[in-house]
C-alpha cells in the first residue's frame, strides 16, 4: 500500500497536513505573542533535525509541492516549514492557529465553526500535478484529523468546494524516512 501511496503523491492532487517537529522547549504562555518566540513552545534540536530531513525526504521521493507551504503563525510551525522547504517558500495562514485552539476550552459553537472552516480549507484542490503542504498542529483525539505525532502527516484528498474531503492515509516521520531509504 505504501508504494502505491507514493505513486499517488507523485501524481499530485493531495493536501499533506503535517504536525510541526518536536517542540518541547518553553511553554505556550496564556497570551502568546506571535512575534516573540519566548512566549511559546519552540522546536527542540530533534524537532529542527526532523524538519530538515522532512524536506529532504520530499525532494528524494520527488513529491511535487505547490508553493507556498502554509503554516500557522506559531514559531514552531514557521520554523518547521522554513527548515523543510525554505523560508522563501512558506506563508503564514492565521486560520491554522485555530487548530491549536481546539485543544483548549472552547464552546461547542466555536469548535463547530473551526471544524467547518477546516472542512472548507481541506476541500480546495491544489494546482494540477502538485500537492499542498500545511504545517500546523495536532488535533484532540477524535476531532478534525485526530491526534498527529510530531512530523506526522495526514494525506487528504480534496473533493472540491462543498464536496468534502477524504483522509487517504497517515504517515509518521519514520514511515516517510523508510520510504526515502528504500525507494
Tell me about this structure:
This is Histidine phosphatase family protein. InterPro entries: His_PPase_superfam. It is globular and about 45 Å long. The chain has a six-stranded mixed β-sheet. The model has no long low-confidence stretch (mean pLDDT 92). Helix 2 runs parallel beside helix 3 (75-85) and helix 2 (45-61) packs across helix 6 (173-182). The chain is of the alpha/beta class. It has one domain: Rossmann fold (3-Layer(aba) Sandwich), CATH 3.40.50. The longest helix has 17 residues, at 45-61. It contains six helices and six strands, in the order αβαβαβααβββα.
Strand arrangement, major sheet: 3-2-4-1-5-6
* Global morphology: globular
Which architecture does the CATH hierarchy give at level 2?
3-Layer(aba) Sandwich
Largest sheet: 6 strands, mixed
Count of separate structural domains: 1
Structural class: alpha/beta
Radius of gyration: 16 Å
Uncertain parts: none
> Helical content, roughly?
25-40%
Looking at this structure, what is the CATH superfamily?
Answer: Phosphoglycerate mutase-like
Count helical runs.
6
The whole-number mean of residue pLDDT values reads: 92
SSE string: HEHEHEHHEEEH
Beta fraction: 15-25%
Number of strands: 6
The CATH topology label is Rossmann fold
Separation of termini?
Answer: 14 Å
The level-1 CATH class = Alpha Beta
Protein name: Histidine phosphatase family protein
Organism: Lysinibacillus composti
InterPro entries: His_PPase_superfam (IPR029033)
Amino acid at each position: 500500500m505504501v508504494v502505491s501511496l507514493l505513486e499517488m503523491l507523485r501524481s499530485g492532487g493531495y493536501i499533506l497536513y503535517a504536525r510541526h517537529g518536536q517542540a518541547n522547549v518553553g511553554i505556550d504562555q496564556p497570551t502568546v505573542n506571535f512575534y516573540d518566540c519566548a512566549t511559546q513552545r519552540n522546536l527542540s534540536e530533534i524537532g529542527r533535525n526532523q524538519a530538515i530531513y522532512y524536506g529532504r525526504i520530499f525532494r528524494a521521493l520527488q513529491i511535487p509541492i505547490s508553493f507556498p507551504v502554509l503554516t500557522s503563525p506559531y514559531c514552531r510551525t514557521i520554523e518547521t516549514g522554513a527548515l523543510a522547504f525554505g523560508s522563501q517558500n512558506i506563508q503564514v495562514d492565521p486560520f491554522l492557529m485555530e487548530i491549536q485552539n481546539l485543544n483548549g476550552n472552547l464552546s461547542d459553537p466555536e469548535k463547530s465553526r473551526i471544524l467547518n472552516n477546516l472542512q472548507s480549507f481541506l476541500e480546495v484542490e491544489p494546482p494540477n500535478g502538485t500537492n499542498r503542504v500545511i504545517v500546523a498542529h495536532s488535533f484532540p483525539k477524535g476531532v478534525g484529523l485526530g491526534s498527529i505525532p510530531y512530523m506526522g502527516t495526514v494525506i487528504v484528498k480534496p473533493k472540491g468546494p462543498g464536496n468534502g474531503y477524504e483522509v487517504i492515509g497517515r504517515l509518521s516521520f519514520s514511515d516517510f524516512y523508510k520510504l526515502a531509504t528504500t525507494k
